[in-house]
Specification:
The structure is a single chain. The chain is of the alpha+beta class. It has two domains: about 325 residues, Aspartate Aminotransferase, domain 2 (3-Layer(aba) Sandwich), CATH 3.40.640; about 150 residues, Aspartate Aminotransferase, domain 1, CATH 3.90.1150.10. The chain contains 15 helices and 17 strands. It is globular.
Length: about 525
Amino acid sequence: MSSNEKRGEAVDLSHHLSKVGKARQTSPLKGLHKYMGKPGLISLAGGLPNAAYFPFSSVSGDILAPDSFPLETDSKESSLSWFWRLFSRTDKERTSTFTVGKYSKHPGDLDLENGLQYGLATGQPKLNEIIREFVGKVFQPGYSNWTTLVHTGNTDAWFKTIQTILNPGDGLIVSEWTYPSAMAGAQPFGIIPVPVGMDSEGMSSISLRQTLSEWDESARGIPRPHVLYTVPIGQNPTGTTMGIQRKKEIYDICVEYDIIIVEDDPYYFLQQGKYIPKSDRVVDSATDDEAFIASLAPSYLKIDYQGRVIRLDTFSKTVCPGSRLGWFTCNPMFAERLERTAETSSQAPSGFTQIYVASLLLKWQYEGYLRWLKALRLQYKQRRDYFLDCFADEFHLQKKFSTEGYTAGTHLYHASLKPRRSFVPLSEKDNAYSKPLFSFVPPSSGMFLWIELHLEEHPAFSSLGYKALEMKLWTEIAEAGVLFAPGAMFFATPVEDDTLGHGHFRISFSNSTPEDLKKAVSTFSTVLRKFMKN
């Protein structure tokens, strides 16, 4: 479809609202806001502080040029040289300045008089205008009356969503490995996670259909779930990327079984593609805006013709996490209920944050922000590649195609310890490697490497089991000065001593220096070698 005029409107999904979501009333005082924009209005109703007493005459900042980072890599450079250049830049940053005064000079301009005043839960109008343009061009929702409203980051957005569409005792469909903070947010409300199997694209549509078609309410003790939570891009913790065909399969199942999809997508613009070993790597070339958007796995929004997707976006990964700013995209019925929730909780994100981010996006414009996002994707791709190159240098990696479990359908790297003595003849070297001690699928999106441990050869494996060994190894790595995230916390339901499987670690490559990344992998190798002997 080429335009919103040809798209239908969202269907009525109000039966998915929770008891709390249905019961929310317009805040008595917030309901007066609809009159605030009336020309010539003398407002004596609200307790609004006088802007003349705000102790800020203006706010300003220096904004990086949107082309501050390159769009191409040089194939002749080593995987390390670009990284050193990034961390030892001597060239002065190119910036432009913005200033927002207390009072606007032109109607519709940003100003502190309104920006720092009690504001609408939907967000400052100028910021919402920018966000709406961006969503329409990039995510291209599949129905006509979609809308957006701001929130204070995806954690806050998920909290509001839980209250709006889930009742205590409801089941929540999640991937078998999932984001633990999302589960921690749902747990106090009595929400019960329902894990669904995964493969190399994330949640399996086959497993989802099986779970729903075989649902036995009497055996399960709860009704069939009506909400699905997913991180489809840079799946946390596995780093997988869900393509459009899988999303269509899952969406069709959700239509069939009347399920709401909550698409939590903070890593959307960090889609890095397949990992290519450095010996086979080629130049990353620049693309135009249209090609860039087309190269990204589409959002569920693009195929959502009924308005059953509540999408959570954030500026945390593309601007900065301290901004605590993001937005919902959803149908107007859900948006109105989420707005009611915000009115009596967070109200609106910080006025300072909204002014700064809106000023940034006004200065860059749509084209400049896309230019920034293109370069950002490349920066994290190079970080990912360098980190995996460190593993290739430190361990013997053997590539195999996986047909089982959450890695099914893609190539898996099995990692073994390299022999310590360099004088071992090449013909004998293969026999000198240890058995694989861990394996991983290179992440195609996000900020994390997810490794699966294979500790069966450990002397205490039969007596301790993999769960205890995972924590024992994790402790020894931490005491050696490197902190990984233990894998058990990412399982959708608590890992017990008799839970079948393997230990795991989630390892971030997003923030450390190249020195520290390389040192961390070396330390892991040293600790693992010693650990397997004890």
